[in-house]
Structures are given as structure tokens and as C-alpha cells.
Amino acid sequence: MSMSLQLTGALLVLASFVPGRWALRPAGRRWLSFLGASLLAIDAVAREQWGIVLLAGAWVLYSLWGLVAWARGRPVGGQEPA
After folding, report:
1. Model pTM?
2. Is residue 47 part of a domain?
3. What is the domain count for the chain?
4. What residues make up the domain containing 13?
């Protein structure tokens, strides 16, 4: 179960960076990044892997900041809200 959770989380984060034809709107990318990092952080806490908790937790907060800014209609990183 844990391996599938890790792989799902990692694939969601990576999918948020796919360029070109499969690219998502900024809000979709932020959601994928947030959900994937959250899965990785939850699994890392359960396994007491504190370095991964720090990394994934920081990514969760970064993604959440982008989602909140998007929800408020503010551009993030030079991008217009979608």
C-alpha cells in the first residue's frame, strides 16, 4: 500500500510539470502538485522519514500558497489566474 501511495503522489507532482499538449491550466497544475505532495508527506510521516516530511511538507505549503492566491484571483509567479 505504501509503495502505491508514494508512486501515486510522485506521479501527481510530476504530472503537474508536463509541458506541451498535455499541459494543464495553472489551477489544475497547482491541485495536482498539492495532492501529490500531500500524499508523499502523509506517507513520510507514517514511516517517520523526517527529511521527506520536510521536503514534501514545504512543497505542500508552496502549492497551497499558489492555490490560495489563485482562489483570490491574484497572479502567482507572473502568471495570470486561469
Report:
1. 0.80
2. yes
3. 1
4. 2-71
Residues in a beta bridge with 76: 79
Residue type, 49: Q
HSE on the CB side for 65, CA within 13 Å?
A: 8
E strand intervals along the chain: none
Tell me if 64 sits within 8 A of 35, measured CB to CB: no
pLDDT digits over 60-78, tens only? 999 999 889 888 887 665 5
Take residue 40 and report the three cell numbers written for it: 508523499
CA 59/CA 9 separation, integer angstroms: 12
pLDDT in tens, 15-46: 888 876 666 777 888 899 999 999 999 999 99
